[in-house]
Amino acid sequence: MKAEIHPDYHTITVKMTDGTEYQTRTTWGAEGDVMTLDIDPTSHPAWNGGSSRLMDTGGRVSKFKNKYAGLGF
Fold it and tell me: Which of 23, 27, 32, 55 has its CA 20 to 30 A from that of 71?
């Protein structure tokens, strides 16, 4: 393997939507950073059978619905 061509591989903390945290190794961020998830397997309908709704944290879903509200098929 060539030296100094690979990204830094370090440990970060991942914080789930329900507040639980776990440690993992990644090339994202820097050593000790915390990655806070907006969507994870506990809150996404694809993983929980569609029983919960996505949270619109950035207003993108409501903006999309308003933009295409009059477009009926």
Answer: 55
